Amino acid sequence: PAGFDGIRKRIAFKAGVRVVEMVKQGIKARDIMTEKAFENAIVLDLALGGSTNSVLHLTAIANEAGVELPLTKFDELSRKTPTICKLSPASKQHIEDLNRAGGIPAVLKELSRLGLLHLDAMTVMGVTMGELIKDVEILDRNVIRSVEDPYSPRGGLAILWGNLAPDGAVVKESAVKKEMLYHVGKARVFNSEEEAIEAIYGGKIREGDVVVIRYEGPAGGPGMREMLGPTSAIAGMGLDGSVALITDGRFSGASRGAVIGHVSPEAQRGGPIAIVEEGDEIEIDIPNRKLTLRVPDEEIKRRLAQWSPPPSKFKSGYLARYAKLVTSANKGAILLGE
User: Fold this and answer.
1) pTM of the model
2) What's the confidence (pLDDT) of residue 256?
3) Mean pLDDT of the 37-57 span
4) Position 338 confidence tier, pLDDT thresholds 50, 70, 90
């Protein structure tokens, strides 16, 4: 519901009551957060054309729950999950419109028609997914489309692999203009978000360029900032239909365009994004899930052999320890024990 709607307070209160009930019943988080539940969450997110951040968060949460959730699982489910709902900034519809159309339960009900959900998965309400959605109605087909008439036959997110992202990268395919689903361009390389923003607003980025922002990953940041500034600048300059952006950082859910994030391994960990040079040709092929640095393998090996990580931005304190222990985004940017 909208922020001004009193229903939100009532929902929050009910959620608190339910938490207390679950504690009394001895129901633990891990009883709910099963592999089936995580797969249901992924399918829902894909159908909504959700944020790339969901990949990061679900992977990290699954790790804590003892569930293995590799990027290959996201890609596998994306190939068979249709996008049946598009929300701002990908369309003029907003989350309030989705709520009026039946909300998340209605989306789940429609997806269940394709057999994409584990209906036997237990939910926080103490009933299975199937029981939870059995009586749900879809109130507006302009907001929640049928699985026979989706916005796209595939999910909103795509996982890309290639010599530029050996461990994967993430793009919100549902927010990419058709002409940018396949793109080849010259790399414009920046070692920070600020450098990239200055170049974009300074008119130094041309149509066809591929903006590469590195050392913004979990360890390199440290902290993996959202690259909202550069993506907004590209869109604001009217370049989102001709310029791509690749980074080991992440994005806001409001980002749109051919913006590819979570490149793993990240630059600070010696990923190939660290040795991309100004003017290198980069091929982006979202339909075929490829992200390729068009440089000979021998040259990539030579550059990596000569590369050394820049000194950490923090010498002591929590962020120094964080930078030392955190994984790249493909593992959820989680902290390792040693």
Assistant:
1) 0.92
2) 81
3) 95
4) low
Q: Active-site residues: which are they? A: 252
> Are 257 and 167 within 8 A, CB to CB?
no
pLDDT at 2: 62
Q: What is the SS3 assignment for the chain?
A: CCCCCCHHHHHHHHHHHHHHHHHHHCCCHHHHCCHHHHHHHHHHHHHHCCCCHHHHHHHHHHHHCCCCCCHHHHHHHHCCCCECCCCCCCCCCCHHHHHHCCHHHHHHHHHHCCCCCCCCCECCCCCEHHHHHCCCCCCCCCCCCCCCCCCECCCCEEEEEECCEEEEEEEEHHHCCHHHCEEEEEEEEECCHHHHHHHHHCCCCCCCCEEEECCCCCCCCCCCCECHHHHHHHHHCCCCCCCEEEECCECCCCCCCCEEECCCCCHHHCCHHHHCCCCCEEEEECCCCEEEECCCHHHHHHHHHHCCCCCCCCCCCHHHHHHHHECCHHHCCCECCC
At 40 the pLDDT is 98
The structural domains of the chain, ordered by start, are: 7-133 (no CATH), 157-331 (3.50.30.80)
Q: What is the pLDDT of residues 64-112, one digit of tens each?
A: 999 999 999 999 999 999 999 998 877 889 999 999 999 999 999 999 9
